[in-house]
């Protein structure tokens, strides 16, 4: 899961017989002599949270920090809650469960970001596609590989997240109210069209087969594949805006599996739909920063595609741990993306298996290289389930006590 993190499109559809129905107590370093923004909200009611300011590219008094997949199995309080809510969908779709889980890492570590406990697949039933997630993380979906199957989505009626995903809005609204005045930032998230499309077409994660079904449909029926991605783009942008209107202050978009695409394929099947979603969010809610993340894969390791991610129009690129943060900064600067911030990128294996000394040293190295302008500290991937809680706490404390 993503908000937890499972690992983790507009345009005309071809005219179809079924298309008529078509309509995501720690000490704080003292401020340096640099100019530091402590801007207030537009109504003057409260200061803009630290992470939100950093995501906007402002120079901040210290680097904010949270962890992808921070709410979940590495925490004993989460594992205890599984006894009461035995399935992932119960934990992510019953409002009181999602609310409690979302807050668990904040209550334990005082992270600067609180992310909704949910999944990138959560809005699919509202689009006419049901799914199952096993406790081992296995995904099961009745696949969409032809026009007839695609009608399940086009005939599902209008996508209305405020009605069909009302539990998401309820949790975000409660979280935003709970966090008011704490200095923490509330994050929502969505999956991007290519990654969601792989689940729809594969009927599963697709890693074991190298996304063979997705590749096959791209080759045999590229028009249908584009139509699926276009429909997802429209609805995912709508879902992200719904999350913002419900309380999310930052949106992270995940194209987790796009890294298995060669660069030329990425430009056709991932990049255009990333841009469509980000553009739609920006046009509707321009004040909300958007962060993009893609997992390290065959063609994305070493930050191979970070310039393409920055070109999507986001505020921040969340980089994985296979590239040094200063190299990522230099490359984006040289490519004309000096205005785009960075998030990351401690190796989650260091956090899981490293000594306290190793965790502190690597965290400080990243902070030193990244500076205190336009950087949000995070991991290079989701936190591993076997990560000791004291290690996670040490990471958060180290970042929050670091003086630039």
Care to describe what's here?
This protein is an alpha/beta fold and 404 residues long. The protein is 43% helix and 8% strand. The chain has 17 helices and nine strands. The protein has helices at residues 50-55, 76-82, 88-93, 95-109, 147-154, 161-164, 166-179, 193-202, 212-220, 222-246, 263-269, 271-284, 306-310, 325-334, 348-353, 356-370, 389-401, and strands at residues 113-115, 132-133, 139-140, 185-191, 250-254, 290-293, 316-318, 341-343, 375-376. Strands 1-4-5-6-7-8-9 form a seven-stranded parallel beta sheet. Helix 8 (193-202) packs across helix 9 (212-220) and helix 16 packs parallel to helix 17 (389-401). The longest helix has 25 residues, at 222-246. The chain is globular, with a radius of gyration of 20 Å. The protein starts with 49 loop residues before the first helix and ends with a helix.
Largest sheet: 7 strands, parallel
Counting DSSP E segments of at least 2 residues, the number of strands comes to: 9
How many helices in DSSP terms?
A: 17
**Share of β-strand residues:** 5-15%
Low-pLDDT segments: 1-44
Cα-to-Cα separation, first versus last residue: 34 Å
Quickly list its features.
alpha/beta; disordered N terminus; two-stranded antiparallel sheet; 9 strands; 404 residues; globular
